[in-house]
Design a protein that fits this description.
mainly alpha, Globin-like, 3 domains, disordered C terminus, PucR_C-HTH_sf
Length: 422
């Protein structure tokens, strides 16, 4: 004989009797569950008509029928029924409802179901032990259904997220490689799929190769930033002109990792912004640019312009400084320093002396020597402009440490090894 207080016993015939008592109330119970779900969960608060209404009612009533069948038989969800709950989870994802809403709906369904079942059982005089067993079965069945639906929802969500991220990375790649005149027409469809409206202007961020070896988790970035941090030269693409707040967010996200924010350019010139940002990182690694680990290219455009073409830079320097070639390095450095200050400060001996921290008479002596080396040129505007460019370039290039070829190769090797290890 079945012990009515043993809730772990096989329900047997008693369970079949309870299922028979409950079965007629399933349509009314379905309506009650639907009403409470719609009242308590905003995602389901839609007019009850059309495909959504039919799908919701059918899903709930089918679940109740399966529960009673399982309760009466004392068996787990069968494979074909399990697929039903997985489909329910997939359907919720495709309808763009949240996982929280789906789980909340299951909790409400379990609570309302047990409330009505308890009322019916009490009226029918069902033994307390059988009611405890029924309650345990209701909540266990609901957890099992929810787990199947959530698993399918999560799986589909992960697949969609991966495909979406791939689309955004592909958009970033094409923006950096497509011919300027073809960008807007060829990328319109891709930008729609990536949910990234093509802006008029953009700015790129070049991230140091140190990111590969120093990062622990991916940084939190604004959703409108396109990113590819897996490529050998990780980079970001920011729509429009980055605000000061956006720049500070980037600095927090990449604390401990060097990056350069490229200039804001028209969309068609995206690749130029990244190219300049990479050049700034290179100049910083060479010691030409010093200071913070995060740099704005727009603060160093003159330096970039002067050092952009090494061949042209070398020719400019040699031609401009030929008259000083016979001097010792120290003599040449002092005269170049004085001449650059003299041109930059409007030919003021007093200002030059203050800047160089020397006596004005020293400045006058050096300027007389420079007049001997460049007779009749010191007041020529064209010559002064070209010489200022040459001297400023010389000043920048002198900051570069001499780098052996194997040093650069070693850095590339270390970066490659770090990426492969990771």
């Amino acid at each position: 004989m079945l012990d009515p207080w043993n809730v772990t016993a096989d329900p047997g015939p008693a369970a079949m009797e309870i299922a028979a008592i409950l079965y007629p109330d399933l349509p009314a119970l379905t309506a009650e569950i639907v009403d409470e779900i719609r009242e308590r969960i905003p995602d389901y608060a839609v007019p009850l008509d059309g495909v959504f209404s039919d799908h919701l009612r059918q899903g709930i009533e089918e679940g109740l029928r399966q529960f009673l069948a399982q309760f009466a038989a004392g068996s787990p969800i069968e494979n074909h029924n399990a697929e039903f709950y997985r489909d329910l989870g997939r359907s919720e994802f495709r309808e763009s409802r949240s996982l929280d809403a789906l789980q909340a709906a299951y909790r409400i369904a379990a609570r309302v179901t047990w409330r009505r079942f308890a009322q019916i059982g009490h009226r029918a005089g069902v033994a307390p032990g059988q009611m405890y067993l029924l309650a345990d079965s209701v909540f266990a069945f609901t957890e099992e259904m929810a787990a199947l639906s959530v698993s399918a929802f999560t799986e589909l969500s992960a697949q969609a997220a991966g495909a979406f991220e791939h689309t955004r990375q592909r958009l970033l790649h094409l923006l950096l490689t497509e011919p300027a005149q073809a960008i807007r027409t060829r990328l319109a469809d891709l930008s729609l799929k990536a949910r990234w409206p093509l802006p008029d202007t953009v700015a790129c961020v070049a991230i140091s190769e140190d990111y590969d070896t120093r990062r622990m988790i991916s940084p939190v970035l604004d959703p409108d930033i396109l990113a590819d941090l897996e490529r050998p030269d990780p980079c970001l693409l920011i729509p429009a002109d980055p605000s000061p707040g956006r720049y500070q967010n980037l600095r927090r996200a990449f604390k401990g990792v060097e990056f350069a924010l490229g200039p804001t350019v028209p969309l068609e010139e995206t690749a130029h912004s990244l190219d300049l940002a990479r050049q700034v990182l290179a100049l910083k690694s060479q010691g030409v640019l010093t200071g913070e680990e995060h740099i704005r290219c727009e603060d160093h455009l003159a330096t970039l312009h002067l050092l952009r073409d090494d061949t042209c830079t070398g020719i400019l320097l040699r031609r401009a400084l030929i008259p000083l070639s016979g001097l010792s390095p120290n003599q040449r450095d002092r005269l170049c320093e004085t001449l650059l200050a003299w041109i930059s400060l409007g030919s003021s001996v007093i200002d030059v002396a203050a800047l160089l921290q020397v006596h004005p008479q020293t400045v006058r002596y050096r300027m007389r020597r420079l007049e001997e080396f460049f007779p009749g040129r010191l007041n020529d505007p064209d010559w002064r402009f070209e010489m200022q460019l040459a001297l400023r370039t010389r000043q920048l290039t002198q900051r570069r440490p001499r780098q052996r070829p194997r040093d650069a190769a070693g850095r590339r090797k270390r970066a490659t090894t770090a990426r492969s290890t990771r």
